Amino acid sequence: MFYRPEAGHGLPHNPFNAIVTPRPIGWISTRGADGSDNLAPYSFFNGVAYVPPQVMFASTGAKDDRDGTKDSVANIRETGVFCVNVVEHAMKDAMNQTSGPWEATTDEFDLASIEKAECSEINCARVGAAPASMECKLTQIVQIEGAANYVVFGEVVGVHLRDDCIVDGIFDVLQYQPLTRLGYRDYSVIRDKFSLKRPGE
């Protein structure tokens, strides 16, 4: 089949998210200017550069109590920092609990009984038991086409790696099994990997 998004797809559910899969999940922790902590997952997330290391996540939609955006973007606008926490399969239920449209004053760490730790380089909380956390300083927020669509870019200024995930000097994803986002309400988990050499190596 072929369809033009502006004309609709004619299917029971939008296939777009099912096409762009699997997607890593950035579990974004932020702290508002008032000191309140927030934690929310974003599947429009990825690394975008090596030197300096940089990441991005996109926020779509808005909450009535956040002036045209969501808690994460609102907090980052105020403070200029955020932390990206990696989601392991064992944390899937806690992650899902933090995805709700909770009030801006809600601390999702407490809501989902998640261990909280302080970041080292920025004034922000992080998921204490996460396989990895990347402390980020905001570089830019770009508004893209559509209502309440924002892409947040940040430079990674500190990295936490859980010791049990480092095997023979390699950060081994199979030690924690990353959770990935598919389409609809579907997720998957990475339990297998293989390597390929580039041409000429």
TrEMBL record:
Q: What is its EC number?
A: 1.5.1.-
Key words, A-Z = Oxidoreductase
Gene3D superfamilies assigned to the protein according to its UniProt record, in alphabetical order: Electron Transport, Fmn-binding Protein, Chain A (2.30.110.10)
Q: Does the keyword Oxidoreductase apply?
A: yes
Q: What GO annotations for molecular function exist for this entry?
A: oxidoreductase activity
Pfam families with a match to the protein in the record: Flavin_Reduct (PF01613)
Top-rank taxon of the source lineage equals Bacteria
The record's InterPro entries line, in alphabetical order, gives: Flavin_Rdtase-like_dom (IPR002563), Split_barrel_FMN-bd (IPR012349)
* Domain annotation Flavin reductase like: ranges: 18-173
Enzyme type, top EC level:
oxidoreductase
This chain's protein is named Flavin reductase family protein
